[in-house]
Amino acid sequence: MAQTDQEPVESESPEQLADPSIAEEAAAEPPTKQRSVAKSAGIVSIAVMFSRVLGLVRETVFARFFGAGYLYDAFVVAFKIPNILRDLFAEGALSAAFVKVFTDYQIRKTEIEAWQLASLVFNVLAVVMSGITVIGIIIAPWVVPLLARGFPPEKAALAVTLTQIMFPFILLVALAALAMGVLNTKGRFGIPASASTAFNIFSITTGIFFAYWLSGGTWEISNDKTVVPSVAAQWAIIGMAIGTLVGGAAQLLIQVPSLLKVGFRFSPILNFSDPGVKRVMRLMGPAIIGTSAVQIKVLVDVFVVSGIEGGQSWLSYSFRLMQFPIGVFGVAVGTAAIPALSRLAAEENIVKFRSTLSDAMKLVFLLTVPAACGLIVLGEPIVALIYQGGAFRAFDTDMVAWALAAYSIGLAGYAAIKVLSPSFYALDDAKTPMYISLASVLIHAPVSYGMMVFLSGIGVTPERPNGFGHVGVALATSTVALVNFIALTMMMRRKIGRLNGRDIAAAFAKVAIASAAMSAVCYFSYRYIAGLFVAETLVSRLLEAFVPIGLGGVTFLVAAKLLRIGEVEQVVSMLRRKLGK
Predict the structure, then answer these.
(1) Is residue 480 domain-shared with residue 519, that is, in the same domain?
(2) Based on the domain organization, do 402 and 257 belong to the same domain?
(3) How far is Cα 46 from Cα 25, in angstroms, rounded to an integer?
(4) Cα dist. 179→113, 494, 495 in Å?
């Protein structure tokens, strides 16, 4: 996980939308329920969008104050370790398993028994995560240098300190994720969806406060990324780590009043052999195995790029930008496709399942292919607008833009995986995605290392110590995502007979042509506008980014109209209905 802030549990990445077939399913539901679902989805969408924006603000704060190098490299590695454990044991596996069992208890048992289960799981989770936190703090001096084997001793020591400070984050956000599960089960979506916004706000504000307080109010970042920062600068990044911990606490505490309001009452009980607790743990097993494959790839990237000064920072900043459109699109469309596919699978309506999945895939390509092209062509002005300034130099902008382009190559495949994998689960097949995910680990490690070594020989500076090695790691991630997507597609075809492949391919071709026209307009308009300014200013950066984006968007819509891309009309109609309400 290259990102460095907590994202909403509801939508970590792109999931996909609906179309007429899904609309028909929704129309069959009672009006009250339909309005309720739409309202909930709208609340979550707004909250997630706000959180994504604040996440970028947080990244911008790091970029301006600490740049891309020694300090932020250490922070990224330190924050990644508890984040990996959180993803592995808490948010994904535990939250999904708990919601399933908690819902069953509410239906089949008494309300008292359901709340007793919730309290038991909270207590078990607190004990287990506290133990993991203590162990993590103790073994950090050995684990961190092993992962970041390319860090010099001073940098590794700083990363160890930051890891030990932020390790309790795993306990706080694990409990926060469980609280989200309880509240969502009870039909409360606003506060849980806003929890990550609380994280961003408090981590930014308290982080800056502690950074200034501990550093004495000032610090400098050298242009030379190999120079050990001053003591004041190191205390400043420690302040940001403390702020991250405060943000994690805020993410949990903001949900406590809502928990009490829906009926939760804490009970000091602990029973690992309770049938409900054991069932939750049993359901977590396959999810942990599948998630572990993703986290192993994250650790591989940390290991491979650790010898490149600034590499961790460049990948983190670029990955955050790549995930922004994915998160926004996922919230907008994911709430419809997956539930519809699950219903159709339960009804054994394979024909309509196939059609709905095909339409969802086409919509994924419609949203992600032009987004990927835009990030590739306009990466430099976008990165400069958001990050450049203060300690973040023009050289860092170039390095992040190259990594962003490499990540964007796999954006469509990455998004499509988020449709295909749940589709297998809807068909009661959890093993196929798990096996493919595990196999991708075996591909990822050699590809990541090989591309890093190869592109390290293609340099950008006279010294060229590591060249574009970090870009190789991003390119490997995209390559493996595309291979993963192809494998899932082939296995889905075997499972449901066919996948309307010609229809999907035709739609993809049309979107690709429209995206190519859009890219050309974006590129030439950006070059023209950039040539009008002698010196860079905020106004010039705004024009260099937004004018090409606007012209490119119009070009894409015109091309889509000429090519008769039906999904565009569906999205426009959906937006008109939303705006008309």
Answers:
(1) yes
(2) no
(3) 24
(4) 17, 39, 36
Q: Is residue 330 part of a domain?
A: no
Sign of the CA dihedral running 499, 500, 502, 508 = negative
Same domain, 159 and 119: yes
Q: Which two tokens stand for residue 436?
A: 């493919």
The parent domain of residue 122 ranges over 69-288
* For the chain, counts of helices (H) and of strands (E): 21, 0
Q: Which residue has the tokens 């949900």?
A: 255
DSSP string, 446-473: HHHHHHHHHHHTS-SSSS-SSTTHHHHH
**What 8-state DSSP symbol labels residue 532?**
T
Helix (H) or strand (E) segment spanning residue 576: helix 566-580
Q: Does 215 share its domain with 316?
A: no
* Count of C-beta atoms within a 10 Å radius of residue 23: 15
Assigned domain for 176 exists: yes
Quote the CA–CA distance of 553 and 540 in Å, as a whole number: 20
Pairs from 275-282 (Cβ < 8 Å, separation ≥ 24): 276/101, 276/105, 276/117, 276/120, 276/121, 277/117, 277/120, 277/121, 277/124, 279/101, 280/94, 280/97, 280/98, 280/101, 280/121, 281/97
CB 407, CB 478: distance < 8 Å: yes
User: pLDDT tens, position by position, for the chain (581 residues)?
Assistant: 333 333 433 334 323 333 333 333 333 334 344 344 444 444 555 666 777 788 889 999 999 999 888 899 999 999 988 888 777 665 556 766 777 788 788 888 888 888 888 899 899 989 989 999 999 999 999 999 888 888 999 999 999 999 999 999 999 988 998 888 888 778 777 787 788 889 999 999 999 999 999 998 888 887 777 788 899 999 999 999 999 999 999 999 999 999 899 888 878 888 888 888 888 888 777 667 766 776 778 788 888 888 888 889 999 899 888 877 766 665 445 545 666 777 787 778 888 888 888 888 888 888 889 999 999 999 999 999 999 988 898 889 999 999 999 999 998 888 888 778 778 877 777 788 888 888 888 889 899 999 999 998 887 665 666 789 999 999 999 999 899 899 999 999 888 887 877 888 898 999 999 999 999 999 999 999 998 887 788 899 999 999 999 999 999 999 998 988 877 776 666 556 555 55
pTM of the model: 0.80
